[in-house]
Specification:
Length: about 70
Amino acid sequence: MDYREYLESRPDVMLGKPVIKGTRVTAELILQMLSEGATVENVLSAYPHLLPVHISAVLAYESDGVEEV
């Protein structure tokens, strides 16, 4: 998956943190929610404008970061 289709990083939005395109929902927030035990369904319920593909994009983004370490 090319997460860049769904994520963007702009200096004028959330201090340049990666966000779901067109939102102020950061990849960091989604990862934090998941790491604290939230399910994908919990995240989508909390942010009904998001789609499952957005969660997949965040996970792909994080996976890329882990591979580079």
